[in-house]
Structure to design on (586 residues):
């Protein structure tokens, strides 16, 4: 290991604080596991799931858990200059010298990084090409339990589901003497997927013809129950060298009651669960001597059954409390006032779209008028800046829906400026990406030209609003995420090519594949999808029913309906004020 890499690792380790005391020597007899995050250190150490997995293994007396990450630009140059294999952070040992390599994956583009890291470690990327003496390569995390197929040829086994429900059985199976015994054991465990035991054939049109399972149990997604053996996932190693510099992060709940029809987290983390307040406060008390900043992580933070006393207690501890985002349904003075009193000045909310019609169709049950009312509550409580999450390209979206976004953002901006003249309104616009396990999994992504027009229009209109910062995701880059989200095993050569630095379009062409097949076609309701073999607990008929409800809500002339006091009532289909002016423009 070069001097530069050793010095960088030493600096990072010196700046880390292990909450709860310091570890002893890392080298211990027993199972040696290299836990990898397929992105930079700053991102990996901001991920509570990754930290929770490392914590679980590092505290076992017969396990030696060390971390490794995608090298940053300077480190990558040094690895290439020296020809050294990828090494772990703690001891600097080569990753390939460990018994097990375990990846935690949160975002689809990181699948490409995983393959690049295997190569950098000196391992052959394809599992079939590796030697029995090579480490067992396993992977888990949200991306892999939605659809592991694009990287199935590279991984020996996947943990499918929530880590807390998988880690005990996984660890027991990993203690087997040989890789063959480990894989045979995992294939018999519920919640694990061994790709080598599955064979997939394809039709001439690219759709799946048949999946044959040679051995093992059905792949049933594992879920954490009400089990007190596991603490809420939280920052275990606190450091300033992250995207959330010096902030203690803790997951407060899992799942979301809204069940937006595009959102994978709502449907795939059912049932919604909240961690007990006292357990969360105990973790916060232990971290308080080391930081005064805490971040509450969840798909729906405000839906925690005791969110008001939780935030109030954290404020009284002297924490500045931030939240990942807030549903409009959860905005109340009782909740957001202690949040603002703690010192938090920026809150993220998700209008998603600009019209009531489309918002109700995607099952986001809040109107423009209600959004503006909730914005007033946030600002009156002391919140100064608002970040708005918005989408374009949703199924059923019309030009009117797109042009409804600027007037809504303008109305929110006006409220911000009237209460806090120096306040900011930040609008972040993302293209819709179909995700497995959701009602919109059968729907296509909008064509690139259409998305470019919508984003150019919004960039122009939002950019003309003083006091508004507009951020647009590139649809060209999002296409890669979408292909990996809904892809199949045939993408393996594409992923290899991307890991070598080649572009997406020529990589697909060289593999004889088409982006249109993955992105721009309507999937049949009875089609075998790459992820259909996963038993998620959510029946396809439920997802199809939700899709039909969305289609009905978007039908021409359909009344816009919303539930109020247990009764469905119609809303005015009128566009936000100012939309007509935009529609009149050439």
């Amino acid at each position: 290991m070069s001097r530069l890499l050793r010095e960088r690792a030493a600096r990072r380790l010196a700046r880390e604080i292990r909450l709860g005391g310091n570890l002893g020597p890392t080298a211990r007899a027993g199972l040696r596991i290299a836990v990898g995050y397929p992105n930079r250190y700053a991102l990996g150490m901001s991920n509570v799931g990754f930290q929770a997995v490392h914590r679980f293994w590092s505290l076992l007396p017969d396990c030696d858990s060390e971390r490794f990450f995608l090298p940053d630009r300077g480190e990558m140059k040094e690895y290439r200059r020296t020809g050294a294999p990828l090494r772990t952070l703690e001891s600097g040992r080569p990753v390939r010298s460990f018994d097990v390599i375990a990846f935690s994956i949160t975002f689809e583009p990181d699948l490409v990084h995983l393959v690049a890291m295997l190569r950098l470690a000196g391992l052959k990327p394809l599992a079939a090409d590796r030697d029995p003496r090579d480490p067992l390569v396993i992977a888990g995390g949200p991306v892999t339990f939605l659809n592991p197929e694009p990287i199935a040829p590279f991984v020996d086994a996947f943990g499918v589901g929530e880590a807390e429900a998988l880690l005990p059985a996984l660890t027991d199976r990993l203690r087997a003497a040989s890789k063959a015994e480990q894989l045979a054991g995992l294939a018999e465990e519920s919640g694990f997927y061994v790709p080598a035991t599955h064979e997939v054939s394809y039709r001439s049109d690219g759709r799946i013809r048949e999946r044959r399972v040679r051995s093992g149990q059905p792949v049933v997604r594992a879920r954490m129950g009400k089990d007190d053996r596991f603490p809420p996932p939280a920052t275990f190693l606190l450091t300033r060298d992250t995207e959330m510099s010096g902030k203690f992060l803790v997951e407060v709940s899992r799942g979301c009651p809204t069940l937006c029809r595009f959102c994978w987290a709502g449907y795939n983390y059912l049932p919604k669960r909240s961690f007990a307040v006292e357990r969360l406060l105990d973790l916060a008390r232990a971290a308080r001597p080391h930081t005064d900043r805490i971040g509450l992580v969840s798909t729906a933070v405000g839906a925690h059954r005791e969110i008001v006393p939780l935030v109030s207690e954290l404020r009284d501890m002297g924490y500045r409390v931030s939240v990942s985002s807030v549903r409009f349904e959860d905005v109340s003075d009782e909740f957001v006032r202690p949040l603002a009193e703690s010192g938090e000045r920026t809150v993220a909310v998700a209008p998603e779209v600009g019209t009531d019609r489309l918002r109700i169709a995607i099952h986001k049950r809040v109107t423009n008028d209600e959004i503006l009312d909730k914005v007033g509550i946030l600002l009156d409580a002391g919140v100064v800046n608002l970040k708005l999450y918005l989408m374009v390209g949703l199924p059923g979206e019309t030009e009117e829906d797109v042009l409804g976004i600027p007037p809504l953002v303008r109305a929110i901006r006006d409220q911000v400026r009237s209460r806090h003249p120096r306040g900011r309104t930040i609008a972040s616009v993302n293209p819709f990406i179909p995700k497995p396990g959701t009602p919109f999994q059968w729907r296509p992504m909008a064509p690139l030209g259409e998305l470019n027009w919508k984003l150019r229009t919004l960039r122009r209109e939002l950019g003309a609003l003083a006091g508004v910062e507009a951020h647009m995701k590139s649809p060209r880059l999002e296409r890669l995420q979408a292909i990996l989200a809904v892809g199949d095993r045939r993408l393996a050569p594409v992923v290899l090519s991307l890991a070598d630095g080649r572009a997406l379009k020529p990589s697909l062409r060289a593999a004889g594949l088409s982006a249109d097949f993955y992105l721009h076609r309507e999937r049949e309701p009875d089609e075998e999808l790459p992820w259909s073999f996963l038993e998620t607990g959510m029946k396809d008929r439920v997802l199809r029913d939700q899709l039909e409800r969305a289609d009905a809500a978007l039908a021409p002339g359909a009344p816009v309906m919303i539930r109020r006091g247990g009764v469905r009532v119609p809303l005015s289909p009128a566009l936000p004020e100012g939309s007509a002016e935009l529609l009149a423009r050439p």
In short: Residues 572-586 have pLDDT under 50 and may be disordered. The CA atoms of residues 1 and 92 lie 7 Å apart.
